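Entry 14. Two folds queued back to back today. First construct below, sequence then structure tokens.
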Amino acid sequence: MRELSLRLISVWLICILFTGFFAYIARSIHLHTISSFDEPIIDIIQGTQTSGLTSVMKTFTTIGSTTAVALLALLTLAVLLWKKHKAQAVLFVAAIGGTGILNQVLKFIFKRERPDFDRLIDIGGYSFPSGHTMMAFSLYTILAYIIWRNLRNVWARTGITILAIFMIVMIAVSRIYLGVHFPSDIVGGILASSVWLFASIALYQRLQHSQLGKLQT
């Protein structure tokens, strides 16, 4: 019990820290002082543009689209319910659904316009924080977490973790490459998703521990 409490305290402290970082980025955007961070990264990433790489990046952006995320989420939910992992199914829905709602709320609050230079695809809506990045981070992180809990093989766990990181990075980078997001949108998206996801997992673990305690008494 003490170990769980310490772990939960650590998670909440991380959430507070990440919220502070997010607020700092949001304030820098509001004060127009974030360009010194955004512009060098944009120059580096967009400086690699080739026709072949553009096709690859468009593919990853499609994988991170609302339709693709929804299909993968529904498939995952169906498997969890079929395997009778009801608690993990609830966690999954809370993580993905909550991330989507949070992204829309934050976009409405900040209303940052998208980059208006070297855009390779057409897209509407606001820029900060990146919805693709938030959904990719929450989807692949929660998938890795659930699979990690259900697998015992070290190599399988390592493989799913590497795959999750790869997918998150590629989807996030594709948004900068294609000219539809600033790097600060990406960082803000990861921070916002992290806070929601870590808080959801912490609550899930707390409830699971409480249920286990009741069964043992």
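Second construct, same run, same settings:
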Amino acid sequence: MSIFACIAAILQTAGGLLPGIGYFISPLATAPILLCSMFSIRFGVMSYFLTIMLLFILQPTELIIFPFTTGLLGLGLGAAFSIFRMRISMIASGAIALMLGVMILLYIFHFPVLGPVASDSFSLLTTGGIALFAFLYSWLWVEVALIIFKRIKIMIIV
């Protein structure tokens, strides 16, 4: 659990430490939280909060992004893998978690998580765009998680 949290914190800080390429590495912070949550929701929640504490020490600027985007998506998808069996239910759970996190950042905290693309005043077009992105992004992570889970299962059997 602590190793997953350390990996997630390192991947999340890549965006601030390595400008440019780090922004492509940073979304991978979802994977350790997702994997930990797939094995146990309790361990997933603990690694999620441990990652938040590590980010507070390592790079506080990423502290507002992780809990509401990449970390919340990993936690939501990991819990969905434990609860649901249908792929669409897993995708919807992750999409709802990510969409709520982005909307909380954008509309409640007025944090420009989407940059200049969207203003912090409520818009149905922006909300629809966030929902569409969250669904597609969650779908991508569900497919990646299923591939990883199958490989882990094969390694355990062999």
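Quick look at the second one. Residues 49 and 148 are 23 Å apart (CA to CA). The two ends are 24 Å apart (CA to CA).
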